[in-house]
């Protein structure tokens, strides 16, 4: 029986490539471990800053936007995620639901629009799939414009009585800027992403840019039969020991879809009693978990939504429920100060006129030397962002 949360942290730190930094040649392995969520924008860059050394911000952006061996698209939970282009079938195609597995967390809200339109999900989605083909030859700047452009294309295919409803003010908020059709399009962009019909192009200032996988990469996306299995393996390797419910929460899919995907590699799993709960992990990783040991209490400044923070058994990182609420919020999550893999504080950054201001709040005792290390890490992060650290405050 494994009861030691420290052992689990040691295992997961290694699985997430956070036990020590690696050369830039390891970037693709790190990005492909379980994907890098990119909200807020730039989160993926911060994640790789903590995992690789000797790689500048410009070099990372060139890999994503020029070399295109990394790709950004809406993936698990409908979030923008950066992952290796060669693994797009794992991070996109494998997430496609089958009949009876809806709703996804990111499309469940469409019901009000469908009821108003008097149309089924399948009817609207079929029209949306045709409309999004526009991106095979075009790019669109900003999410709001994308919704409007695609909604306009769908509108042309509707009968007159549906066109009136399609162009009615949205019931989801901002009716002065969004129509019912625009809202429906917004919900359906995520499943279209899973079919590689829409991906992110090169960001222009504060605005994202969108096109299709084919138009952006010049390639036809792979669709390997093993992609679904590989998706589950990635999750268990990074977040095991875990349960099928943890997996479903991570994906943001229905319980039925989570169970189906989970079952594809059940023969590769072992059952463990972990901290009073029955969990599972890959049999090939069980020995590594058993022998995992923390070597020191390495300090890290993880950015908001770093993959390591995405584990669903949050007590492994932070036991206090009150402090958990300070870390995992409904919006505007802070960065997390890691100490030996556990959440030992939070940090926030603000940039102004080329200068960086960082404030830290500690959850436990830090020595003077450790606080000095934190300030050095803040300065290193500022240099990575091409900002001068002007102020770093630490509050116990």
Automatic annotation (TrEMBL):
The source's domain of life comes to: Bacteria
Please provide the record's keywords in A-Z order: DNA-binding
Q: Name one GO molecular function term.
A: DNA binding
Entries under InterPro entries matching the protein: AlkZ-like
Know the name of this protein?
A: Winged helix DNA-binding protein
Q: Which organism is it from?
A: Cuneatibacter caecimuris
User: What are the leading ranks of the lineage?
Assistant: Bacteria, Bacillati, Bacillota, Clostridia, Lachnospirales
């Amino acid at each position: 029986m494994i009861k030691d949360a420290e052992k689990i942290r040691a295992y997961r730190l290694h699985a997430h490539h956070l036990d020590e930094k690696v050369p830039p040649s390891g970037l693709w392995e790190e990005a492909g471990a379980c994907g890098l969520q990119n909200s807020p924008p730039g989160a993926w860059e911060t994640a790789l800053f903590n995992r690789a050394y000797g790689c500048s911000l410009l070099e990372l952006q060139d890999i994503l936007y020029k070399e295109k061996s990394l790709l950004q698209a809406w993936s698990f939970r409908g979030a923008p995620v950066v992952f290796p282009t060669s693994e797009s079938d794992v991070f996109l195609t494998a997430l496609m639901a089958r009949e009876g597995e809806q709703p996804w967390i990111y499309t469940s809200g469409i019901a009000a629009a469908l009821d108003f339109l008097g149309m089924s999900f399948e009817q609207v989605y079929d029209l949306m799939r045709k409309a999004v083909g526009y991106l095979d030859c075009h790019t669109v700047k900003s999410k709001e414009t994308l919704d409007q452009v695609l909604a306009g294309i769908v509108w042309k295919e509707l009968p007159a009585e549906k066109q009136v409803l399609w162009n009615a003010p949205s019931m989801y908020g901002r009716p002065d800027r969004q129509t019912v059709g625009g809202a429906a399009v917004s919900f359906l962009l995520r499943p279209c992403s899973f079919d590689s019909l829409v991906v992110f192009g090169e960001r222009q200032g504060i605005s994202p840019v969108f096109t299709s996988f084919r138009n952006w990469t010049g390639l036809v996306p792979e669709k390997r039969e093993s992609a679904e299995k590989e998706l589950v393996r990635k999750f268990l390797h990074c977040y095991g020991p875990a349960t099928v419910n943890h997996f479903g929460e991570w994906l943001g899919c229905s319980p039925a879809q989570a169970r189906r995907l989970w079952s594809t590699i059940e023969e590769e799993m072992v059952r463990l009693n972990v901290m009073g709960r029955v969990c599972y992990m890959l049999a090939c990783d069980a020995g590594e978990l058993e022998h995992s040991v923390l070597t020191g209490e390495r300090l890290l400044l993880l950015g908001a939504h770093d993959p390591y923070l995405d584990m669903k058994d949050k007590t492994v990182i932070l036991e206090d429920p009150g402090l958990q609420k300070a870390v995992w919020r409904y919006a505007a999550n802070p960065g997390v100060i890691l100490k030996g893999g556990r959440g030992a504080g939070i940090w926030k950054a603000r940039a102004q006129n080329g200068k960086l201001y960082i404030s830290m709040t500690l959850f436990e005792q830090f020595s003077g030397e450790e606080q000095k290390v934190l300030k050095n890490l803040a300065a290193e992060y500022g240099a990575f962002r091409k900002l001068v650290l002007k102020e770093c405050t630490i509050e116990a």
